[in-house]
Amino acid sequence: MPGFGTLLPRPVSVEPRPGECLLAPGREPEVSFSPELPAEGYRLEITPDGVWITAADAAGAHHAGQTLRQLKGPDAFRAADIHSGPWRLPCGVVTDRPRFGWRGCLLDVARHFRTKAEVLRFTDLLAAHKLNVLHLHLTDDQGWRFDVPRFPRLTEVGAWRRESMVGRHDGPERDGRPHGGCYRADDLREIVAYAGARGITVVPEIDVPGHSRAAIAAYPELGGGRRVDVWTSWGVCEDVLDPSKSTLDFYRAVLDEVLDVFPGPVIGIGGDEVPGATPEHGRFVARLAEHVRSRGRRPFAWDEVLDGPALPPGTVIGAWRDEQAGRRAVAAGHDVVLCPEDRVYLDHRQSDHPDEPIPVGYVRTLADVYGWEPPAGPGVLGVQAQVWTEHLDSVRRVDYAAFPRLAAFAEVAWSTGPRDHAGFLSRLRDHHLPRLDALGVEYRPLGGPLPWQTRPGVPGRPR
Question: Glycoside hydrolase family 20 catalytic domain: from which residue to which, for each copy (predicted)?
Fold first, then answer.
């Protein structure tokens, strides 16, 4: 019978009690709400007579349900019930609350498009790990994924590219295979509603003024009139937006569509990696941030914007270059989400073994992710892992890159220290990986990639 020592992320406190509960199939726990509990917190009590949940809010009730699901065992994570007889649960009380209010994961659907069904599946995986923000990177040089009826060429032209770079070697090799896709407004509304029912807020991102070649391919005037194709390479593209009034008006109209589809409090506007950036590019981002703020929302921008003009109050900074950027953001009066590249970029290689597929970035092992101790304090909203998809061209590749490291990240985001790597590894190996198996997640095995998870001959760019 699974015990409280199987739980992941680790709860704040557990009080085991004698006996066990035989919970009949289909019998739901009794749920009540208490304003005395902290946001997203819950109390789960299991007795021989049944299961009771007291939660701060709907999100807390959902998290309690995930804890109960873990205690039932891996079969509780299957899409259909194959369990026979009552669920055998240990008696006791779990009292729990999250360490950070923002526990996010970015999914890049611009470089490689993920279908609506695949995004819904990824949302379920976030919810199973008590993560509560899905950051959708919707636009980039290699594709525009958000349908804007007023500007149809954004998806007619910008949503697909004729081929893709093979690996990352900055050479001429391409796969010769067209790639594309986009989301209609109702698809995205469905994703938002689906996520919301699982305690997850969706943060959309329209990246400007760099990472914009797909938009420029659709409407050349956005880039000063030069005609280009949707980019087929990876890396940082030299094509950036012309920060003119007409371009600003265009993106204000785009953001109005985004604001209509996504009701959440935070809207991403990018601001990162702008080759040849001028002060006017900085003012362009600041004006779009003010537009988002004027609509009652909070803009989210990457930490490069700290080098430009002052941003409106309430702007959230994604500190990706290093933790020092987070300190700068707080000192400037902004809230910050910590997502440093050298810690939580899950597209980075997981070992230095030659079988590691398309090895890019730093070596960031499961132990490295689990051992990260993000600084807390005033202005720090929370933390976010990043799943960039230049080299993740299928759901199987996303699974491999994200898991089980995202499970380690979930514990960092939810649970306070001290860290016990051996204990975490035991919970992961003996209990949590079977749950991922039941969910159909093709994670990276602890011993290294399986033969079909390798990419022989496809070059990377390790650091």
Answer: 100-275, 281-416
pTM metric for this prediction: 0.98
Q: What is the DSSP letter of 28?
A: P
- Buried b / exposed e across 392-406, counting CB within 10 Å, b at 16+? bbebebbbbbbbbbb
Sign of the torsion angle spanned by Cα atoms 37, 94, 44, 58: positive
Same domain? For 80 and 201 the reply is no
Domain CATH for 35: 3.30.379.10
Q: Which domain holds residue 81?
A: 4-96
Tell me which of 70, 96, 122 is where a domain ends.
96
Q: Which of 73, 96, 119 is the last residue of a domain?
A: 96
CATH number at residue 143: 3.20.20.80
Does 68 share its domain with 155?
A: no
CA atoms within 13 A on the CB side of 89: 29
Q: Which of 273, 341, 373, 411 is catalytic?
A: 273
One pLDDT digit (tens) per residue for the chain, 463 residues: 679 999 999 999 999 999 999 999 989 999 999 999 999 999 999 999 999 999 999 999 999 999 999 999 999 999 999 999 999 999 999 999 999 999 999 999 999 999 999 999 999 999 999 999 999 999 999 999 999 999 999 999 999 999 999 998 778 899 999 999 999 999 999 999 999 999 999 999 999 999 999 999 999 999 999 999 999 999 999 999 999 999 999 999 999 999 999 999 999 999 999 999 999 999 999 999 999 999 999 999 999 999 999 999 999 999 999 989 999 999 999 999 999 999 999 999 999 999 999 999 999 999 999 999 999 999 999 999 999 999 999 999 999 999 999 999 999 999 998 899 999 999 999 999 999 999 999 999 999 999 999 999 999 999 9
Q: Is 288 within a domain?
A: yes
> Do 215 and 317 fall within a single domain?
yes
Phi-psi region of 222 (alpha: psi -120 to 50; beta: other; left: phi over 0): alpha
Domain count, the chain: 2
Q: Which residues of 278-301 are buried (b: 16+ CB within 10 A; e: fewer)?
A: eeebbebbbbbbebbbeeebbbbb
Residue 430 lies inside a defined structural domain of this protein: no
Residue 301 in contact with residue 271, Cβ under 8 Å?
yes
